[in-house]
Automatic annotation (TrEMBL):
UniProt domain XRRM: residue ranges: 348-507
Descriptive protein name: XRRM domain-containing protein
Gene3D superfamilies: 3.30.70.330
InterPro entries in the cross-refs: La_xRRM, Lar7_xRRM, Nucleotide-bd_a/b_plait_sf
GO cellular component, one term: ribonucleoprotein complex
Species this protein is from: Daedalea quercina L-15889
Length: 507
């Protein structure tokens, strides 16, 4: 009869007897492999965080990741970045570490939050494209060589990525110059609001190309011009315009021809009837070649310097006039009808009726501004008819004035030139004379003409523009009075009326 042996003792003895067997290391390896699989699956599921599990949002995020990776390895990116090009040349079969691309490429910083390597690899494999190729190294080198000294813990895998046509790309980019890329560049404006990210702009431009079966690599680079008020080092945000570099001059010329700059498209003639094209027509999307945009930029900078010089001279004149106690009133200006811009029913907008105003109080409002500028033009029957609309945003020290006719524009600018006026507070409707001991700057007015006037009115709805044209035609023949002399005339007439009343009482 065999003796009774408890199970626990039997298992313990079995494990003790098998301590030197090769099965124990295998059990440890299985546990490590299981933990690695769980960590990798957790990283792969990071793509599902955005969108709260919705399939459409997951697909959109995957498309964004694939588009941004394609831009980071585009022909222009390889041509412009010598470090990236050196990595490809010295790499094995054109492969480069994916972590290097994530930390080095500026376009990848537009993805927020930044995806993990496993998520990117999953997206590239799911897209099944002929552009990119990824692989995983079984034996990864040291983390210092791959990830640098500041590498975080818990990042798994030695992933590498490459362009499948990397050898052809290196050979072709050696023959390209900066002028070649400039010829393929375009400036786009009035981008629909739902496509104002780097990845969305690339897909939007791709959808507008009428060529069938065109590669996603048609967009080589997207540059968002920074705003003057952006902080140093801050990532620029899309404000409705961007500079795009395309893969060929044919695509650049075709897009500029289908979406002209000076003529607003109102239908989908000769354009594929896609949802993106319909949105482009709705928002007034237009394109101009890079060369023409550079010329307009030079003209704008020269005009800006002229305005700054004129503003500096006006401030010096204002400081000199404030020190003089006796100021001679200028003669009332007489404007001939031939000197004023004419507006008829065929005009796209009222000519000469737009004024840009600087140095207003930042805490003011539209009602106060209307009263402030309406004092320069007075009419007996219809008060405040000279100022048609005040285009002002809270917190700004500038605004636009839409006047009823070009005659009001001349009288308004002449009045504020002859009478330097500043706003002492946000509710100041009369204005004060700026003095040398205060920080008040005189209000300056600039008549907007030419291309700037056309660009402004193009953003105004058609119905509002038509009403402004009709109002400019009806008020063109009215002879308004100037406020500088209107104040004196109004006060003299009021005194005369009071004197006549006193004489009647005496009688």
């Amino acid at each position: 009869m065999l003796p009774f042996i408890p199970r626990k003792v039997a298992r313990a003895s079995k494990s003790m007897s098998g301590a030197g067997s090769p099965s124990q290391p295998r059990r440890v390896d299985d546990r490590a492999l299981t933990s690695v699989r769980h960590a990798a699956s957790a990283e792969e599921q990071a793509i599902d965080v955005k969108g709260k599990g919705k399939a459409t949002d997951i697909v959109a995020l995957a498309e964004d990741i694939h588009t941004i990776i394609s831009l980071a390895l585009s022909d222009h990116a390889i041509w412009a970045d010598s470090h990236l090009r050196s990595r490809i040349v010295n790499g094995s079969d054109g492969y480069i570490p994916l972590q290097f691309l994530l930390s080095h490429s500026a376009v990848l910083s537009t993805l927020d939050p930044s995806p993990t390597e496993a998520a990117i690899v999953k997206v590239i494999r799911a897209q099944n494209s002929d552009l990119l190729d990824v692989r995983v190294l079984v034996s990864a080198p040291s983390r210092a060589a791959w990830y640098g000294k500041e590498s975080g813990r818990g990042q798994l895998g030695g992933y590498e990525v490459r362009r499948q046509d990397w050898a052809e790309v290196l050979q072709c980019t050696q023959q390209l110059t900066e002028d070649d890329w400039a010829a393929r560049s375009i400036y786009i404006e009035n981008i629909p609001s739902q496509y104002r990210t780097t990845a969305a702009i690339a897909r939007f431009i791709h959808s507008l190309v009428s060529s069938p079966n065109v590669s996603m690599q048609i967009v080589q680079n997207i540059w968002l011009p920074p705003h003057a008020q952006d902080k140093p080092g801050e990532r620029p945000k899309c404000k409705g315009f961007a500079l795009i570099i395309l893969s060929s001059t044919e695509h650049a010329d075709g897009l500029a021809r289908h979406w002209p700059w000076n003529i607003r498209r109102t239908d989908l003639h000769n354009v594929a009837a896609t949802h993106e094209a319909q949105e482009a027509v709705k928002f007034g999307f237009r394109i101009i070649p890079r060369g023409h945009w550079d010329k307009l930029k030079e003209e704008y900078l020269a005009y800006r310097e002229t305005l700054l010089d004129a503003l500096a001279c006006a401030e010096q004149v204002a400081e000199q006039t404030t020190q003089v106690h006796v100021v001679e009133e200028p003669a009332e200006p007489r404007f001939a009808a031939s000197d004023l811009p004419t507006t008829d029913l065929s005009s796209p907008y009222p000519q000469g009726c737009l004024v840009f105003v600087r140095n207003i109080h930042t805490e003011t409002n539209k009602t106060t501004l209307r009263a402030l500028f309406s004092q320069a033009v007075t009419e007996s029957d219809v008060p405040d008819a000279g100022v048609d609309y005040v285009d002002f945003s809270k917190g700004m020290d500038t605004c636009y004035l839409r006047l009823a006719s070009a005659r009001y524009t001349r009288l308004l600018t002449a009045f504020f030139t002859a009478h330097p006026t500043a706003q002492s507070s946000g509710l100041d409707t009369t204005g004060v004379a700026p003095s040398a001991g205060t920080n008040l700057k005189p209000i300056t007015l600039e008549v907007v003409e030419g291309m700037r006037e056309e660009l402004y009115w193009n953003k105004v709805p058609e119905k509002v523009r038509r009403q402004a044209v009709e109002k400019a035609m009806t008020t063109a023949d009215i002879q308004p009075q100037q406020a500088g002399h209107g104040r004196t005339a109004a006060s003299d007439s009021a005194e005369g009326k009071r004197k006549r009343k006193r004489r009647r009482r005496g009688e």
